[in-house]
């Protein structure tokens, strides 16, 4: 088969690197180093072809890989079914070359020479001639279209349904992940790699500084907001979504009825929120389906963090604290009008209540308890326990806690950063990533990228009804639904930092690429494996850092609360007009 000139010309570094990695290159009987199959016809590349248009460059396996990558990408667009794409690619490249010519002409109007100005521009683009520039621009466009076909598929695409494998990983006919010789998944996919959680929240902002563990100061309005929201949740005055829409001070998610979309290992949520959800699901949620150890391992919770969180336990906030917070919110002087402790706000009863019960950065739940001055847990109040928002949850040993209208536990944590999300977060996990199937719906189906109402959309078993999934979680118009589908697709597209390597491996199979030098092939395989291992190591390292930061923060909180927390008993002393000293 004819080898087009631009196909050979595009292999900028291959010659050197093929030689540089192996002194005695192994070739077939005709001297071919690499064979690429295009439309069923083999295209052979030999050392002569390589050196014909190349000059030496820096040595190294990465350069070799990049050069071979270019070989296979250019080979792809030599396929007959890519003819239209190839024409468009070189039309775009030609326009880019013309733009550079025009730029050189304009620059030369200042008194310089056209050839000199052109050389300057070409140098900035790391090429020497317009032909090289054309090939560079063409290759850039090829890479864009290569990825588009890979992710989107469709007529004429070089690969079909790559997205499904990206989502669920490489699986065998039985649906199980394919394992390598070491028992690790060959490719585990987005769902297993990132463990996405679908979460909602309702944010109540407070004025207290986030890092003020024991002397946080909130306003009368803050106290009233916090109390009112908890009362509304406990009485199920509306669904969690409608209450979030009405009360949440995170305007973006409030418009989406509290929906925060997908949270995974790399989502940039504050530690208390993201790690708090992981801690609850792995260590405190004893649902009997998986052991805490297995869940902690899956969520990559370090052993030191597990020990600390086990010691702390799940925080329990008495509902009575919200009631009392509202009752004392106005008190800033004693009953006789005296300014106690020189009028310092940290001694106001509302702040004493806030700091004791709500100003805590470990994940917690709200119980139907009344406050007891001697501790932070209190005792159950039958009237509170009868409110519709409190349900006994088997996964918490039958303990009654605040839940949404569907029976999902409402988690609570103090978190945020100055000026943005600083306050109390009330969190609902709509879908945990720990279990493949919940209520008959698999994780894959829950994060389907099909359109609701179509035949391809997953159905409730034995019916023609669509399942409840992420994309139809909110009642949206067609545009809104597409945005949620795109949200999943974009998550999947971005999850793997080695996606280019993944595409290369698929291209090698598609084009039936053969490496005649076993040493080079082994080196390339090792390089690709190391790239993936490095990305996984970085993910684990970043997660460990987050856990360390949160645990250190909780340690600081513990020390401060032990030494400086103003006791609730002081509220009576405040009302009586008696001053109070820390430790006194």
Question: SSE layout and pairings?
Answer:
Blueprint: H1 5-9, H2 14-21, E1 32-38, E2 41-46, H3 47-52, H4 61-76, H5 83-108, H6 114-124, H7 130-152, H8 162-168, H9 189-194, E3 197-205, H10 220-234, H11 240-247, H12 251-255, E4 259-263, H13 271-284, H14 292-298, H15 303-312, E5 315-318, H16 319-328, H17 349-358, E6 364-367, E7 369-370, E8 379-380, H18 382-385, E9 390-393, E10 399-402, E11 411-415, E12 423-431, E13 437-438, E14 441-442, H19 443-446, H20 478-495, H21 499-510, E15 514-515, H22 518-564, H23 570-576
Parallel strand pairs: 5-6
Antiparallel strand pairs: 1-2, 1-15, 3-4, 3-12, 7-8, 9-10, 11-12, 13-14
Helix pairs in contact: 2-4, 5-6, 5-7, 10-16, 13-14, 16-17
Report on the architecture of this protein.
The chain has 584 residues and is of the alpha+beta class. It folds into 3 domains: 5-149 and 498-517, no CATH class; 190-435 and 548-576, Chitinase A, domain 3 (Roll), CATH 3.10.50.40; 436-477, no CATH class. It has 23 helices and 15 strands. The chain has helices at 5-9, 14-21, 47-52, 61-76, 83-108, 114-124, 130-152, 162-168, 189-194, 220-234, 240-247, 251-255, 271-284, 292-298, 303-312, 319-328, 349-358, 382-385, 443-446, 478-495, 499-510, 518-564, 570-576, and strands at 32-38, 41-46, 197-205, 259-263, 315-318, 364-367, 369-370, 379-380, 390-393, 399-402, 411-415, 423-431, 437-438, 441-442, 514-515. A hairpin with a 2-residue loop joins strand 13 and strand 14 (441-442).
């Amino acid at each position: 088969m004819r080898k087009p000139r631009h196909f050979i010309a595009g292999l900028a570094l291959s010659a050197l690197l093929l030689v540089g990695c192996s002194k005695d290159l192994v070739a077939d009987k005709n001297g071919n180093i690499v064979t690429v199959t295009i439309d069923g016809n083999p295209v052979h590349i030999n050392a002569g072809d390589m050196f014909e248009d190349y000059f030496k460059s820096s040595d190294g396996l990465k350069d070799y890989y990049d050069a071979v990558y270019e070989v296979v990408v250019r080979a792809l667009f030599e396929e007959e079914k890519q003819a239209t794409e190839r024409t468009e690619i070189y039309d775009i490249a030609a326009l880019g070359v013309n733009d550079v010519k025009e730029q050189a002409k304009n620059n030369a109007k200042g008194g310089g020479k056209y050839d000199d100005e052109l050389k300057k521009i070409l140098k900035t683009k790391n090429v020497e001639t317009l032909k090289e520039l054309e090939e560079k621009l063409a290759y850039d466009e090829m890479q864009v279209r290569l990825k588009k076909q890979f992710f989107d598929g469709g007529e004429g695409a070089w690969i079909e349904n790559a997205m499904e494998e990206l989502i669920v990983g490489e699986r065998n006919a039985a649906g199980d992940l394919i394992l390598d010789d070491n028992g690790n998944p060959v490719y585990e996919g987005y769902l297993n790699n990132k463990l996405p959680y679908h979460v909602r929240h309702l944010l109540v902002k407070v004025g207290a500084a986030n890092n003020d563990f024991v002397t946080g100061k909130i306003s009368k309005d803050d106290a009233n907001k916090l109390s009112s929201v908890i009362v509304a949740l406990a009485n199920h005055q509306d669904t969690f979504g409608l209450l979030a829409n009405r009360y949440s001070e995170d305007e973006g998610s409030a418009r989406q009825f509290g929906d925060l979309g997908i949270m995974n290992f790399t989502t940039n949520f504050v530690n208390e929120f993201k790690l708090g959800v992981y801690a609850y699901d792995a260590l405190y949620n004893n649902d009997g389906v998986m052991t805490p150890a297995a869940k902690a391992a899956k969520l990559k919770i370090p052993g030191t963090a597990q020990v600390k969180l086990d010691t702390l336990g799940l925080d329990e906030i008495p509902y009575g604290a919200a009631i009392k917070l509202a009752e004392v919110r106005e008190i800033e002087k004693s009953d006789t009008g005296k300014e106690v402790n020189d009028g310092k706000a940290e001694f106001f009863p509302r702040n004493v209540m806030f700091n004791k019960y709500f100003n805590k950065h470990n994940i917690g739940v709200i119980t139907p308890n009344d406050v007891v001055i001697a501790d932070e847990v209190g005792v159950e109040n039958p009237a509170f326990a009868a409110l519709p928002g409190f349900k006994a949850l088997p996964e918490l040993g039958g303990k009654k806690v605040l839940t949404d209208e569907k029976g999902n536990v409402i988690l609570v944590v103090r978190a945020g950063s100055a000026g943005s999300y600083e306050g109390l977060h009330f969190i609902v996990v709509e879908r945990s990533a720990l279990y493949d199937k919940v209520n008959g719906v698999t994780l894959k189906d829950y994060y389907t990228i099909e359109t609701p109402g179509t035949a391809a959309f997953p159905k409730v078993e034995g019916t023609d009804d669509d399942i409840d999934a992420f994309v139809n979680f909110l009642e949206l118009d067609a545009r809104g639904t597409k945005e949620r589908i795109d949200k999943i697709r974009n998550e999947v597209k971005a999850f793997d930092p080695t996606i280019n390597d993944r595409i290369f491996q698929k291209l090698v199979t598609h084009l039936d690429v053969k490496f005649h030098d076993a040493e080079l092939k082994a080196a390339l395989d090792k390089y690709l494996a190391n790239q993936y291992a490095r990305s996984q190591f970085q993910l684990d390292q970043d997660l460990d850092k987050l856990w360390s930061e949160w645990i250190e923060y909780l340690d600081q909180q513990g020390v401060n609360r032990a030494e400086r927390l103003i006791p609730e008993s002081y509220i009576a002393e405040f009302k009586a007009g008696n001053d109070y000293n820390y430790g006194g």
